[in-house]
């Protein structure tokens, strides 16, 4: 059963402006530890890819927060919601801390799609409530 649906579009130029204004502090606020390492590596090698990586994570977390109906308030935090990927490349939500406990207590599973172009990153998230015999979500 569908619990919630969320979508978000992010202007990559706004993310660039935030990085210029706040430096790495902006990325450190938005990204979980694993994401931050990937962002730094990509930014060093391909600055534009690093920028789009940050924009897609920002967009995905916004879409997820809408799908669960919390917005950006506790237990939803930027760093407790991580966007990882399976070996196939499929993006997945990995939760931490109080957000993970909140999500599991409700027997929820998230499905995520992300995309980006030069100026925009977009995400779509569907959260479903698991039935008793449904398998849990895939994890990276």
What layout of secondary structure does this protein have?
Layout lengths: L1 E10 H11 L1 H7 L2 H13 L1 H21 L13 E5 L5 E5 L1 H9 L2 E9 L3 E10 L11
Antiparallel strand pairs: 1-5, 2-3, 4-5
Helix pairs in contact: 3-4
Can you characterise this structure?
By secondary structure, this protein is an alpha+beta fold. It has a single domain (2-129), classed as Alpha-Beta Complex (Ribosomal Protein L22, Chain A), CATH 3.90.470. It is 44% helix and 28% strand. The strands form 2 sheets. The chain has a 3-stranded antiparallel sheet. It has a two-stranded antiparallel ribbon with strand order 2-3. Strand 4 and strand 5 (120-129) form a beta hairpin. Helix 3 runs antiparallel to helix 4 (47-67). The protein is globular. It starts with a strand and ends in an 11-residue tail after the last strand. The mean pLDDT is 93.
What is the CATH homology-level superfamily? 4'-phosphopantetheinyl transferase domain
Give the end-to-end Cα distance, rounded to a whole number of Å: 24 Å
The number of E-state strands comes to 5
Total number of helical segments? 5
Low-confidence stretches: none
- SSE series: EHHHHEEHEE
Average pLDDT level: 93
How is the largest sheet built, in terms of strand order? 1-5-4
Structural class: alpha+beta
User: Cα-atom Rg, whole angstroms?
Assistant: 15 Å
Helix content: 40-55%
CATH class: Alpha Beta
What would the principal axes of the Cα set say about the shape? Answer: globular
CATH topology: Ribosomal Protein L22, Chain A
Q: Quaternary state, please?
A: single chain
User: In percent terms, what proportion of residues is strand?
Assistant: 25-35%
Q: Largest sheet at a glance? A: 3 strands, antiparallel
Number of domains: 1
Task: Just name the CATH architecture.
Answer: Alpha-Beta Complex
